[in-house]
Amino acid sequence: MNQTIDALLGHYSVRNFEDKALTEEELALLIKSAQAASTSSFVQAYSIIGITDKKIREQISAIAGNQPYTVQTGQLFIFVADLARHQAILEEHQVDTAALETSEKWLVSIIDAALAAQNMAVAAESLGFGICFIGGIRNDVGQIAGILDLPPYTMPLFGLTIGHPIIGKEKAKPRLPQDLVYHENAYQKMNPATLAKYDEQIKNYYDERTAGKRVEGWSEQIARGLGRKSRLDLKDFLQKQHLNQK
Question: By the 8 A CB rule, do 162 and 18 touch?
Fold first, then answer.
């Protein structure tokens, strides 16, 4: 293995940061790293909004579940699926913008943003920073869009908080066995025995991490979390933003 792979395999989310802002040089390097990610057909259909104002961070934190690490951190980034630039270009060139309102273009913008964010995350961890993705901003995408003054053809996807970690005893959370994730030539049905073994591994992980306060397998966690409907405003928001219409 090498340092890059060691860093990837050792990843864990950090939720406790020093109250120390990233430098302009560090920010520029992280953004440059994000922009170096692959992008579909060179479309570059995303924007990154850095939140330096702590009052705005507090507003975002309240929506995202009152997570303190979105406020006390080096920098909070919001990744936005962004086809607004492309809409302006198409209008300038007198090209019909209807093609932007398709599911395909929406997916392109989401994938572009996700690839850029992962590049930034890897770059940050390679520099010794801690990171945590913030999906809670989708608890109220309309309110987040208002706070960030987002135009049509955009959608706030997730946050990424990066900072100087206050070192704890965290370790990488065990991922699914490769047998359940990697399929050769065709999709394979899940092996219940493999899943059961993984559930036991996750139970032990949570038991050790929380000193017995949380003991549940991955299947239990998934059944509890995905068994309830959530964020049902997304469809209306997408229609309002002229995204994913066809």
Answer: no
Domain that holds residue 131: 3-171
Distance in angstroms (rounded) separating the CA atoms of residues 39 and 114: 10
- pLDDT tens track for 9-55: 999 999 999 999 999 999 999 999 999 999 999 999 999 999 999 99
Of the given ranges (66-70, 161-165, 213-217), which has the lowest mean pLDDT?
A: 213-217
- Sheet with 46-51: list strands edge to edge: 46-51, 75-82, 154-163, 130-134
Whether the Cβ atoms of residue 233 and residue 140 lie closer than 8 Å to each other:
yes
Number of domains in the chain: 2
pTM (two decimals): 0.94
38 and 101 within one domain: yes
Split at pLDDT 50, 70, 90, the class of 169 is low
**Residue whose entry in the numeric block shows the structure tokens 């270009």:** 89
Answer whether 180's CB lies under 8 Å from 187's CB: no
Backbone angles phi, psi at 168, to 5 degrees: -120, -150
DSSP string, 129-191: -EEEEEGGGGGGHHHHHHHTTPPTTEEEEEEEEEE-B---S--PPPPPPHHHH--SSS-----
Looking at the structure, do residues 143 and 204 belong to the same domain, yes or no?
A: no
Q: Which of 171, 199, 223 is the last residue of a domain?
A: 171
